[in-house]
Amino acid sequence: MTIITACTMDCGDACSLLVDTDKKSIKGNPKHPFTKGFCCKKGSRYFERLDAEDRIVTPQIKENGEFREASWDEAMDLVVAKLDTARAVPKSILHIHGHGYRGILGKASDILFNKMGASTTYGAVCDDTGITASIRDFGVLNHNAPEDILNASRVINWGRDLTRCSIHQLALIHKARKNGTEVLTISPGGDGTAEFSDVNVVIRPGTDRFLAAAVLKLYLEAGDLNPWVLNRTFNWPALRGLIDGMSFNELCSTCEVSSSDVEMIYDWYADTGNVATVISWGVQRHVFGGENVRFINALAMISGNIGVPGGGAYFNVSSGRDLGTWEHLVKGGSSAKRRELLIQNIGAEIRKATPPIEFIWVDGHNIVNQVPDCLSVVEAFAKPFVVVVDGFMNDTAMQADVILPPAFMFEREDVLGSFVHNYVNHCAAVVKPRGQCRSDFDVYSDLGSRLAAPITFPDSETCIREGLKQADISYDELMENGFVKVHHPSVAFENMQFGHLDGLYRFPEELHPEPQRDPDYPLQLLSLVSGKYLHSQIPEKDQAGAPVVFVSKQNPAWGALNPAMDTYLVTPEGAMQVKVDTVEELHHRAVIIRRGGWMKYGQNANVIIKPMMTDMGDGTAYYSQGCRLENR
Ligand SMILES: Nc1nc2c(c(=O)[nH]1)NC1C(S)=C(S)[C@@H](COP(=O)(O)OP(=O)(O)OC[C@H]3O[C@@H](n4cnc5c(=O)[nH]c(N)nc54)[C@H](O)[C@@H]3O)O[C@H]1N2
Ligand SMILES: Nc1nc2c(c(=O)[nH]1)N[C@H]1C(S)=C(S)[C@@H](COP(=O)(O)OP(=O)(O)OC[C@H]3O[C@@H](n4cnc5c(=O)[nH]c(N)nc54)[C@H](O)[C@@H]3O)O[C@H]1N2
Ligand SMILES: [Mo]
What we know:
Largest sheet: 6 strands, mixed
Strand content: 15-25%
Number of strands: 25
Helix content: 25-40%
CATH topology of the largest domain: Rossmann fold
Structural class: alpha/beta
Number of helices: 20
Bound molecules: ligand MGD, molybdenum atom
CATH class of the largest domain: Alpha Beta
Shape: globular
Number of domains: 3
């Protein structure tokens, strides 16, 4: 039987899928206008994950350092007893929820722990730097519909590796190129962007703001600024003054882009026809990542490409923008101001917390793996009682006292939106949960009702219906078709009306210098997404041996390494053994490692990445990590 469902993985493509439950085959829904009948391998091979031999399908309790199987009743009794005790000081409970699963029902754990007044996290490991930057500029988070890119004469892509992170945006780009749209990509290189770009410009990682400022300087020199555009901005004189005071050559040399390439980028923006600007998430994972995004947005604005078809600046939209909450339907508990611990330095934050953290609950997050300074997270998890809701014995599950096995996608229902497109999808449960796995919603509903002071949820259908009310989405249409298009104008900020109270655009008013490189760690470590896997959701069998890092043949480390000896990737935080390979057109001081490998296999770069904040949105500056390669 073929059933319409949808992917709930943390990916903007948010595909509508057809699952043949007899053949266990998965394909993209041809009726879904964005999915268009195809999906990536992570989606089409999801049964390998559901049926994996090493999947945890029974609750586990740790005793004397070893896990043993337990019934749900035994595991829940133990968890509830610990929680009831900890609730005497609600702040002593810490709830950590990640990007592992999303949706209307996916909010259940946040709602339950909010009602308990538990501590929570702030800060971000993903996209909040770029979101905050975009909101400072435009007043709200929005971009043109992704399909509008087909109207662009040219696309300027600031680093997004569509071959890995979004095959449906890639398909749109392929289609646009067939119709004559040209694509220029600016990135540190060594990625998949050459496959879909007419021109590639290699930039020193972390310095896009200087390149955008250099192009803006050429606009100033040319004097061809559109008065209508300037009229829609609040603080143009401040940005103009800032750029006037800078030398073109210095801007070029800071980002290590030649003046002729900067002139070419100016021509791409200034020529007739509209230009769409695409901004990667990579641009904002640097200490001045927010400023990078703001200067790129400023260029899209000054070039007259905001509020027009075929233009726009694509960072992302909020996947939850069309979905409401059902928290107000929950009975018991109360929502008070919660203590917040910084996510990207969670080890240190737990250690210094007063009152101390006694109980930690983690769901949908391989936190021990995905945040910097992982070893300190392991240390901080040692004393509190730790419950992890996950289905694999990954770096986080290993630190648990109790592991509760969740039903994964296709085994449980949810409804979710996308951070790229404008459709809301129904992720139907199409197969029974394996073994004793239970949906997260069911687990939280059960847990809440077992507490000494209970917190009770409505049934799941009531929650879904409530969540759909916000954007007036028809429940029946959603169930019938598997998706609903939510109306958002195809062009964002039409007539240049922005979200600030005065309706005007805001420019950045400062350009911070790039921090000095530590001469002992002259290379820059980029821990990029891998095409084959979603973050750390990597089968254990694929993690043998030292991980491969990629450098350019021009990298000073490459010539200095002796291939016959062991090689280590070294930062001030520590060292890990790696294999080194070369890749074309990568910036000569960049080192690429694909992220998500597990600590227990010596594959996790976060062990040697220091927690560093970005300038906006409390984001994580993973890519500002200095490093070196050496034989040992
Ligand atoms: N070094 C480095 N680290 C990074 C980044 C970087 O650039 N560099 N970027 C990061 C980014 S962009 C992100 S978004 C984060 C992602 O960090 P995480 O959110 O930790 O992502 P995953 O590694 O995919 O882990 C998600 C977990 O959720 C589990 N899961 C899946 N479905 C369900 C479910 O239905 N219920 C429950 N309970 N669990 C489920 C999966 O098995 C998996 O273990 O990592 C960040 N980490
Ligand atoms: N296959 C797969 N797809 C995914 C994910 C996954 O884990 N696997 N994760 C999803 C999630 S949660 C996210 S957030 C996205 C992330 O998607 P991407 O944006 O692709 O994320 P990154 O790998 O962090 O960075 C992407 C690119 O940024 C470029 N880059 C790095 N630094 C700079 C810079 O300073 N300037 C410029 N111009 N470019 C730079 C790099 O060359 C890299 O190719 O992907 C989503 N899609
Ligand atoms: Mo992300």
